[in-house]
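Design request, tokens follow.
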């Protein structure tokens, strides 16, 4: 086993297909059901609505939540993050999965993207 990769990255993870069906139907209101602080939820709303400004990150004191917002912002600002095609669902799915792990975030977001194509 490679020493520089955390051990937990080697375990198999799968998504909950029932939750995926829910995420395929959600709108921005679903953000309220996520277990994040108010500033983080506001930042997610802003990213989905293309109103995010980098000063919002300063209001987020939780390191995990800050990483989530920085990741969502980076994905949306690099030209490949046009979540309008998915009505914000990909970002919401990423945020949902991120509550559990980065792997779950990527799995849910990717599944949303593939399901809409």
């Amino acid at each position: 086993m490679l020493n520089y990769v955390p051990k937990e990255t080697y375990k198999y993870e799968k998504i909950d297909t029932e939750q995926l069906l829910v995420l395929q139907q959600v709108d921005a209101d679903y953000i309220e059901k996520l277990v994040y602080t108010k500033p983080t939820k506001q930042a997610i709303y802003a990213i989905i609505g293309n109103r995010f400004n980098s000063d919002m990150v300063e209001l987020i004191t939780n390191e995990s939540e800050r990483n989530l917002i920085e990741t969502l912002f980076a994905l949306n600002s690099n030209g490949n993050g046009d979540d309008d095609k998915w009505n914000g669902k990909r970002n919401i799915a990423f945020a949902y999965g991120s509550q559990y792990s980065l792997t779950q975030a990527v799995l849910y977001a990717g599944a949303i993207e593939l399901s809409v194509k």
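Comment from the thread starter after seeing the answer: thanks! Residues 68 and 95 are 7 Å apart (CA to CA).
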